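Archive transcription. Copying these from loose printouts into the bound notebook so they stop getting lost. Printout 1 of 2:
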Amino acid sequence: MAHKNEYHDNMVKMLELIWGKGYMAPGGAGNVAKLLDGTSPQGKRILDIGCGIGGPAFEMARTHGARVTGIDLEAPLIERARRDAEKLGLLGQCHFEFVDIGPLPFPDRSFDIIITSGAITQTSDKTFLLNECMRVLAPGGYLSSYEWMRSGREYSDDMHYWFKLEGLTYALEQLGDYVEKFMHAGFENVSAIDASDWYRAEAHREYEMIRGELYESMVRLLGQRDADHFVEDWRAMVVVIDAGEMRQGYCRGIKPAATPYAK
């Protein structure tokens, strides 16, 4: 989940320009569909951890018929999500809460599905968060995650440079580590998909767009300094993606039908 006050206004504007209105992670509606594939979300209670400004929650409500609770550590993002939910007439299906680091503020077995898109990436204590996900899921519920990950080698100077440009808290792990952590938390039928090839192509497309057809719009929207900063940020990201250092993947698990939590 995003740490407090890391996503400033111009960063949010930039992410929306690249990834679509309401989205702060790649893939847009297609990524939401991948996260929900096979979970039968119609009418289900979904928790979106690290919901940002609400784009995925709105998609889950409108297209997939779910009832969504979104949580985030950044109050301005939650405020924006609430405003947009009201504008879209989705207050009956989408609820957003500002939370602090610590236990999830929900009773046991509160949700049928939990999704995250980048939240575990930015969480240092992944074991604690996964255990909390297990607690608040109903038996048979899904945890479905899309995250940015790392290779197994030491970070290069290029990787450290990209971290500096991003200015965000990252706690990257390898895809296999996610599988182990999901299983250790008690999830069954854990599966993982390496999506690095998909986002490598996307990142190159995005980089060409922002230094080409979108650049003038970025300057008008963000100012020259921030526009140039994000061009360099994406260039540096393409470098570490091409080198195989920054990777992407999906991980999913199911809470067993009978667990110590399911009394």
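Printout 2 of 2:
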Amino acid sequence: MQKFLKHLIFILISTIIFLYLCDLIYTYVYLKSNPRNKFQYILKTKNKSYDIVFIGSSRVENHINAKLFSKLSNKVVMNFGVSGAGLNDNLLQLKLLFANHKVTNVFLQIDASFENTKPSNISISEAMPFLNNIIINNHLKKNLKNFDYLNNIPFYKYAINDPKIGFREMFFSAIQKKTKNDFNFGYSPLNGNKLPLIGGKLPKTILKENTILNQIINLCEKNKTQLTLFVSPYCKKIKNIDYIVKLKKKYPYLIDFSKGYDDNLFYNCSHLNNKGANKFTYDLYNVSKKIINN
């Protein structure tokens, strides 16, 4: 029995040491490698000056041709939209942007994202290797129930987020493999039409208030940055589109492009194709040029 216990203790200690080593190796690689996503790009670059940044989900990433917007406005423009991101993730992005860079105008896309205040997999996964960063640490401490486990148990943060920051992504980071992400303008176009268009639906009711959006508004005011809220287009088959009317009652200055675009301009019901994105970029510029030129 004593021999068995010694063997068990040896295995346990060896496992803990192995997990600590893996954690150290993964973290070192992510800290030292070139950025492979927009979150890392914001964190790892310093002292850039942006006239205009676009923040939001894929309905920004696939909708705003920042190069075209830059040409129209003669401004330095970047699309920091990230597929799957919610307002909580946008808040963390902005905290890091303001800490590392100068930003004059922020355009934030909102829709049914207004209903959620929790972090998405963007914060949970892409931020994990950088928990030593005080901004990230404080943000996730307030927003993640399992933060203590993530912060203190070796390799736990990598194990539960393996699809995003597991061995494959760590290896690509280690060998400095180039990514498809555009760090010049950030636009990711969708081509063609994914037919037939299948209409989704927006919520029937609306949250009384979104505390995360309130923090975003206050953060922009604190940094003397102009914040513009807007809604990207939906196809005609989307249900409960009146949700946007309810949203606009809460924020009367919201720029609403939710309706009015032909279905041939959509890749799917919630996302414009490249042709639609270029039209939307041009339309949004025309509506907002007075704001960005003040």
